[in-house]
Design goal:
Elements (H helix, E strand, L loop, with lengths): L22 E3 L8 E14 L5 E11 L4 E3 L1 H11 L7 H16 L5 E6 L8 E2 L5 E2 L19 E18 L6 E15 L1 H9 L8 H16 L3 E8 L5 E8 L12 E2 L3
Parallel strand pairs: 6-12, 7-8
Antiparallel strand pairs: 1-4, 2-3, 2-11, 3-5, 8-9, 9-10, 10-11
C-alpha cells in the first residue's frame, strides 16, 4: 500500500497497480447505522484484445459494514493504470476490480458493474431528490462551522421527505471544496425546516470525507430529533471524474436494494 497521495504530485501508473489504493478505516459511532457507499467513475477506459481503447462508466457499491473506505484520488490512480491493460470483455475487468477492492475494503458484499456505451442513455438522471426543497426558505445564514445545536423539532408527528442542494464541505487533506445535494426522509417528531437548512449550511467550512459527512448528518438528526425512521443520502458532484453517493439509514439494506439514481448536477 502506498502513502496517502492527496495533495502530492504522483506518477501516473502505466499498468494495474494495487499498491496505489489507499484505505481509510471507518469511524465507529454510538448508534447503529445501515447503508452503503455508491461510487461512479465516468473516466473508465481499458484495452480490448486487439489493443483498441474501450470506454465505460464504473459503478461500485459497498456497505457501511466494510472495514474501510477507499480514498478517492488513490482509486482514480488505480483506475487510470487499468487503461493500459487488455481485457477480453468488460466482465473480466469487473472481476479484477472486484477482487482488488474486496482485498482492500473487506466488505460484507460489493457490487462492481461497468455500464457500456450502449447503455449510457438508460442511466437514470433526476432533476432533484424527492420531497420538499429547503432552499426556497428566505433565511439569514451566519454559521459556517458545523453546529448540530441549530437543529430543532416541533410538536406533532410527520412522515416527510426533504432535500437541499446547498451542502458544501471541504476535503480534510487538500481543503478543496466538495459540493452535494442532501436527501432526508424521516418519520417522527416534525423537524423544523428552517433549522435543518441552517444546519446543512453550517457545513460550509467543515472538513470531512463524503461518507463521514453523511454519517454525521444522520447521527445529529438521530440525537437531536430521535425519529422512528431516518434516511440520509448525499449526492456529491464529480471530482476527478468520480461522484460519491453515501446512504445512511435506520433500516438494514442489502445489495438488492441499491438505488442507482443520480442527479442532474452529477
Amino acid at each position: 500500500m502506498s502513502e496517502l497521495p492527496l495533495g502530492e504530485k504522483v506518477s501516473q501508473p502505466k499498468r494495474r497497480d494495487t499498491s496505489v489504493l489507499y484505505p481509510i478505516p471507518r469511524k465507529t459511532y454510538p448508534v447503529t447505522i445501515y447503508g452503503y457507499d455508491l461510487w461512479r467513475s465516468y473516466e473508465l477506459s481499458w484495452l480490448n484484445d486487439k489493443g483498441k481503447p474501450q470506454a465505460g462508466i464504473l459503478e461500485v457499491v459497498y456497505p457501511v459494514q466494510s472495514r474501510c473506505i477507499v480514498e478517492s484520488k488513490s482509486l482514480k490512480l488505480y483506475l487510470s493504470g487499468l487503461s493500459y491493460e487488455r481485457f477480453s470483455m468488460a466482465a473480466a475487468l469487473e472481476n479484477t476490480i472486484r477482487e482488488d477492492l474486496e482485498h482492500l475494503l473487506v466488505p460484507e458484499w460489493i457490487s462492481v458493474h461497468i455500464i457500456g456505451q450502449e447503455n449510457f442513455p438508460q442511466m437514470i438522471c433526476l432533476p432533484h431528490p424527492e420531497g420538499i426543497c429547503l432552499d426556497t426558505l428566505d433565511s439569514n445564514i451566519d454559521t459556517y462551522q458545523k453546529d448540530p445545536n441549530l437543529l430543532s423539532c416541533e410538536p406533532g408527528l410527520l412522515d416527510e421527505a426533504l432535500y437541499s442542494d446547498l451542502l458544501k464541505t471541504n476535503c480534510p487533506i487538500t481543503g478543496q471544496p466538495d459540493w452535494a445535494s442532501v436527501a432526508i426522509r424521516y418519520r417522527g417528531k416534525t423537524i423544523d425546516h428552517e433549522s435543518l437548512m441552517k444546519y446543512l449550511c453550517s457545513y460550509r467550512d467543515h472538513e470531512g470525507f463524503a461518507e463521514e459527512v453523511c454519517e454525521q448528518i444522520f447521527i445529529d438528526l438521530m440525537e437531536r430529533c430521535s425519529p422512528d425512521m431516518l434516511s440520509v443520502r448525499c449526492f456529491y458532484t464529480r471530482r476527478g471524474g468520480i461522484d460519491i453517493n453515501p446512504l445512511r439509514r435506520t433500516q438494514p439494506i442489502g445489495p438488492d436494494d441499491i438505488d442507482r439514481a443520480r442527479l442532474i448536477r452529477q
